[in-house]
Design brief:
The protein is α/β, with parallel strands linked by helices. Helix content is about 35%, strand content about 20%. Bound molecules: S-adenosyl-L-homocysteine, iron/sulfur cluster and FE3-S4 cluster.
């Protein structure tokens, strides 16, 4: 260990894994460390403190972090004063936490201990003994922490934390604790502030935004909250994720149709297309109810994009169950979907279930499903060629140098040639080419 090393860390870097919740939490960490007088650097080798904000949702997510820790440890040989702090969901999971400390993390802190990060870094700098700070209960104060949002067009705002759903495969209820909503006045304040800083698009975050409001003193639903946000000046678009299918209300569908600023995009993960598997997943709906919901949304908001998450190889998934998923995907035609191989997570119900599916079967199934879903997405995108789409310009593209990148309300990426001064503006673009994941266009004169 590095007991003799004297440290006074000045700079930090945050490597973020996992979902948008973590992206938002990393912004809070950066805000707090800035306030404590530290500056962020873009280069790993330069940072006095390397912070990993981790995800534990799948084994592969954890492996990425373990791999990175190995890399940083090598780097530490050259620069032993570097401190490693690991936060995020893995820190909250007992098995992963143990491994993190074994792998040389100097600070391990839970998603509910972010407010203590500057103090924990100070502590370990002074006495060089690793510290672990995890909270079993929940930090309600989190919402009042300062965040330093990355400069840009689009920002994330939490409307709630945690999750009560306990889908049988999922660690999130264990890492993020019980569901709790933020008061609407807090949310409105934060968005007004972001509007004042020039942000144009807000994505409202929650593991299940549709149950927003439960447990609050004020009587408010998610649809009611969305309606309340509409007259915040300067914000052009509102997005939200994720919508649990079991809690999507008619009121929400109405509100999406009624307000122009609410993007016509609903991410509502189906997870599986077999009723037997959905039951074992504890999802709280069956395929019939899901299809009814799709019909309702498409009747009320025909142009809405519907996207999904899907899991293949859940315990007990037979060929017939998987074919049901393929059939649902063909029938619904999702605009896009994230598809995962089931990954057993310690402490969840599904990890202890019989009939775990062999890896090779999972691989075969994911390949088949990806192929089908990609073909469908490409077909839908093709149908948009020669149409004119309203897009919000985000800035220069990272993948298509020299081009601007923008997004349709339905969450499609459109790249096109134009001046950077268009960033933050909503403009009309004619689609000239389409691919599976993005579109090319040209500005309408
Ligand atoms: N709250 C969101 C999803 C959060 S996790 C919701 O309910 O939709 C994001 C996605 O990861 C899930 O939708 C699910 O498809 C996937 N996922 C979660 N746990 C998983 C596991 N153990 N193995 C594989 N995929 C998993
Ligand atoms: Fe996990 Fe289910 Fe909660 Fe989503 S709703 S975070 S999948 S337990
Ligand atoms: Fe998100 Fe991963 Fe945690 S998906 S909530 S960072 S386990």
């Amino acid at each position: 260990m590095s007991a003799a090393i004297k440290r006074s860390p000045q700079s930090f870097i945050i490597l973020t894994y996992g979902c948008q919740m973590n992206v938002r939490d990393s912004e809070t960490m950066a805000g707090l460390l800035n306030m404590a007088g530290m500056t962020e650097t873009g280069a790993l080798e330069e940072a006095d403190v390397v912070i990993l904000n981790t995800c534990g949702v799948r084994h592969s997510a954890e492996n990425k972090v373990f791999g990175k820790l190995g890399e940083i440890k090598k780097m530490k040989k050259e620069k032993p004063e570097t401190l490693i702090a690991v936060g995020g969901c893995m820190s909250q999971l007992a098995d992963a936490r143990k491994k993190l400390t074994q792998l040389g993390a100097d600070v391990v802190f839970g998603p509910n201990n972010i407010s203590e990060l500057p103090e924990l870094i100070k502590q370990v700098s002074e006495n060089s003994r690793p510290v672990v700070k995890i909270m079993e209960t929940i930090d309600i104060e989190k919402e009042k922490l300062p965040a330093r949002h990355k400069p840009g067009i689009s920002a994330f705002v939490n409307v709630m934390y945690g999750c009560n759903n306990f889908c049988s495969y999922c660690v999130v209820p264990y890492t993020r604790g019980r569901e709790r909503s933020r008061g609407s006045a807090d949310i409105i304040d934060e968005i007004r502030n972001l509007a004042g800083q020039g942000y144009k698009e807000i994505t409202l975050l929650g593991q299940n935004v549709n149950s927003y409001g439960s447990g609050l003193k004020e009587k408010i639903t998610f649809a009611g909250l969305l309606a309340k946000l509409q007259d915040i000046e300067g914000i052009k678009r509102f997005r939200f994720t994720t919508s649990h299918p079991k809690d999507i209300s008619d009121e929400l569908i109405e509100v999406i149709g009624a307000y122009d600023k609410i993007c016509n995009h609903i991410h509502m993960p189906l997870q599986a297309g077999s009723d037997q598997i959905l039951r074992a997943m504890n999802r709280g709906y069956d395929t019939g109810q899901y299809l009814q919901l799709i019909d309702k949304i498409r009747m009320a908001v025909p142009e809405a994009a519907i996207t999904s998450d899907l899991i293949v190889g859940f315990p007990g998934e037979e060929d017939g169950d998987f074919e049901d998923t393929l059939e649902m995907v063909e029938r619904i035609r999702f605009d896009a979907a994230f598809i995962f191989m089931y990954s057993p997570r310690g402490g969840t119900k599904a990890a202890a279930m019989d009939k775990q599916v062999p890896l090779q079967v999972k691989k075969d199934r994911i390949n088949l499903l990806l192929e089908r879903q990609y073909a469908i997405a490409a077909e839908i995108n093709k149908s948009l060629e020669n149409t004119v789409q309203e897009v919000l310009v985000e800035g220069f593209s990272k993948t298509d140098p020299g081009k601007l990148t923008a997004r349709t309300g339905t969450n499609r990426i459109v790249n096109f040639t134009g001046p950077d001064t268009l960033s933050g503006q909503t403009i009309a673009v004619k689609i000239t080419h389409s691919g599976t994941f993005s579109l090319l266009g040209e500005m309408c004169q």
